[in-house]
Design brief:
Helix content is 74%, strand content 0%. 26% of the residues are buried. It has a domain of 212 residues: MetI-like (MetI-like fold). It is built from 15 helices and no strands. The protein is an all-alpha fold and 309 residues long.
């Protein structure tokens, strides 16, 4: 016992001695050494393409040559280009319709699946299919179904004496088709997220509201919506970003046509870069969309913080 006590005493003395010297602790370099490779990989994957794209937007080059430095001339030229203004308008319309449509459908289905309905487990899985199926498979399948008079939709309309409707034949119907298919692809994400938020709400709140005589609409307005407001803002921001950056839906469905009716900023940036061989303008359009999304996300987050206070 005496030997053990002496050993413990010497150990405590070493601990006290190591803690002396102005309270300074020796910096362990191992965590930082382990962190450096991950940080370098992140910078290589994200920062380098970002910096390269910005440099390209400041030049008048093509895919074959870098071109001369022109400063902000490409950005100034964007505001004089009618196709950029239209792409900006369509991107806004596409994003707003998709955010509202997918949120309403997703929240409605989440409210239904949050109840004890028959086959709830099956529908929870089945309704995820539009989100799970690869983009090229789902969009090409939709194009096959609505492209012409021999498509599945027009054949079904023909059975009841209607149609044919050329969904991709005019600008208005193409815009409607692209938006509806985007909502169809997006609502499962909204549904799953809203369902998770609904299941986190304390059921005692609804029981107290029912005792006070509140109806379903009052409980939904005064309990459900305020409780899921925080996650809803995050979902709106994410869906807006994904909608503005959506290339595959308008491109695989219409290639931006007819008459560039479904050409958003990302499709336009692709066309200028790879079809018209103008990397400077294409990069400038891409950075313009990124800047708009950053400002919009910042505004929505500030709005959320103000509401929480």
């Amino acid at each position: 016992m005496g030997v053990r006590a002496d050993a413990l005493g010497r150990r405590s003395d070493r601990v006290v001695a190591s803690g002396s010297g102005g309270g300074r602790r020796r910096l362990d370099p191992l965590p930082y050494a382990l962190f450096v490779p991950s940080l370098a990989l992140i910078l290589l994957i994200n920062l380098y393409p970002f910096a390269s794209g910005f440099v390209y937007s400041l030049r008048d080059g093509s895919l074959l040559k870098a071109g001369d430095f022109v400063g902000l001339a490409n950005y100034a030229a964007l505001w004089r280009m009618p196709d950029v203004r239209y792409a900006l308008q369509f991107s806004a319309l596409f994003a707003v319709c998709n955010v509202i449509g997918s949120y309403v459908v997703g929240l409605g289905l989440a409210l239904l699946l949050n109840k004890d309905v028959p086959g709830r487990g099956f529908f929870r899985v089945a309704l995820l299919l539009p989100w799970i199926i690869p983009s090229i498979v789902s969009i090409v399948s939709w194009r096959w179904m609505i492209a012409d008079q021999n498509g599945l939709f027009n054949q079904a309309l023909g059975l009841v004496g209607l149609g044919p409707i050329y969904f991709l034949g005019s600008g208005d119907t193409a815009i409607f088709s692209v938006i509806m298919i985007k909502i169809w692809r997006s609502f499962p994400f909204m549904m799953v997220s809203c369902l998770a938020a609904l299941q986190s709400i304390d059921r005692d709140l609804y029981e107290a509201a029912e005792i006070d005589g509140a109806g379903r609409w009052q409980s939904f307005r005064d309990i459900t919506l305020p409780q899921i407001a925080g996650i809803s803002v995050v979902l709106w921001i994410l869906m807006t970003i994904w909608s503005v950056n959506d290339f595959e839906t308008p491109w695989l469905l219409t290639q931006g046509g007819p008459s560039n009716a479904t050409e958003n900023l990302i499709v336009l940036a692709y066309k200028y870069t790879f079809t018209r061989n103008d990397v400077g303008l294409g990069s400038a359009i891409a950075f313009l969309s990124m800047l708009i999304l950053m400002v919009l996300a910042l505004v929505l987050l500030r709005r959320q913080e103000a509401d929480e206070r």
